[in-house]
Amino acid sequence: QVQLVESGGGLVQAGGSLKLSCVASGRIWSIDGMGWYRQIPGNQRELVAFIKDGGQTNVADSVKGRFTISRHGILLMLEMTNLKPDDTAVYYCNAKKKENGGDYWGQGTQVTVAS
After folding, report:
1. Fewer Cβ close by (within 10 Å): the C or N end of the chain?
2. DSSP labels for 1-65?
3. DSSP SS3 for 87
4. In whole angstroms, how large is the CA radius of gyration of the chain?
5. How many CA atoms are closer than 13 Å to the CA of 36, on its beta-carbon side?
6. Phi and psi at residue 33, in whole multiples of 5°?
7. Contact at 8 Å (CB) between 61 and 49?
8. What is the pLDDT of residue 106?
9. 103 half-sphere exposure, CB direction, 13 A CA radius
């Protein structure tokens, strides 16, 4: 099992910045890449950004140029700048299982952007 714990969410004015962190523990060697997803109530969870073990990143068009994903061992970061009200959501840390592509999820952290 892998445990993911997020931190760094909060309330920010439009145009502001926030940094999210996620710390992984447990069977770290069993994961293949980590990323961030977000979800608004009533909507499906959507990919924000993902970083593979080799460093290749995949970033959603809606946040390109504003959000930066990085990973340093067990620590996954998401630096968010020029935040917009549409970025308001619960942000979840994700890790993919090497063996079958399944998912580990964190508990989520709320990001609220006020207009």
Report:
1. N
2. -EEEEEE--EEEETT--EEEEEEEEESGGGEEEEEEEEE-TTS--EEEEEE-TTS-EEE-GGGTT
3. helix
4. 13
5. 34
6. 95, 150
7. no
8. 98
9. 12
CA distances from 1 to 55, 57, 60, 84, 109 (A): 23, 24, 28, 35, 21
- The pair of structure tokens assigned to 16 is 């502001």
Average pLDDT over residues 63-68: 98
Give the pLDDT confidence of 14-62 residue by residue, as tens digits. 999 999 999 999 999 999 999 999 999 999 999 999 999 888 999 999 9
Q: What is the pLDDT of residues 1-17, one digit of tens each?
A: 999 999 999 999 999 99
Cα dihedral across residues 11, 67, 8, 96: positive or negative = positive
